[in-house]
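Re: weekly structure request thread

Next one in the queue (267 aa):
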Amino acid sequence: MALADIWGRSGSPENFISCPACGRRALKQVWREHINVCPSCGKYQPLKGKARLNLVLDRGSQKELFPEMAVHDPLGFPGYREKAEAQQEKTGLNEAVLSAYGTISNFPAVVAVLDSRFFMGSMSSTVGEKITRTIEYAGKEKLPLIIFSASGGARMQEGIFSLMQMAKTSAAIQAFSEAGGLFISYLTHPTTGGVTASFATLGDITLAEPGALIGFAGPRVIEQTIHAKLPKNFQRSEYLEERGFVDMIVERKDMKSVLAQLLSLHS
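Done, posted below.
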């Protein structure tokens, strides 16, 4: 399919995207070439889970794992099922996480990606179960594991069932690590709440995209709680790299090459 069929005819207003940060406009094709990073100010915008998998994994190597797993409503929360169906129709996803096996510059790996378009990438019981199965699959096949996190935390409509996933995913990572598995955690904007407090911060190597918000509670909540102003760029990936919480900040255009280099060093 030609680019014109995907992005429409260049020049018409609907084929421009305005940056939420600087307000400058650029053609959709230009945004695509910059991998959804503003071509004017460099501000990172969300990237679809499927697009990230396609960018990281070698063409033709990708095999999706557990595609049938979808949202379920353990508490019968009012309106939740209808909202979930609307999210599925809007995004084309069954849940907020995609998992796949593939190769990265010919190095085999298992990759999971949280998609912030689906309930802000929140961790439901299905998300936790799918992450756990992905970890176990990587362990069984003796493959390195890479998880791209982007989440607002636990999914409130599932209550304790969502919170239980923190312990379950953490235990799965621990078992994977004890068996000698390599886990690379790649934090994107935002990574917060129960995801930060569980598997996202348990990587053997922790990478982050520039400017990503990473933390448990958000900065506004913290400021309201402690009644004090936080340091500039508090909880941003650059601030956390300076303090050793993040090993390396990796630009989106470099993520595949950096991951391939890490896999080659640990293969």
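The chain has two domains: 14-45, 46-266. The first helix runs from residue 3 to 7.
Next request, please.
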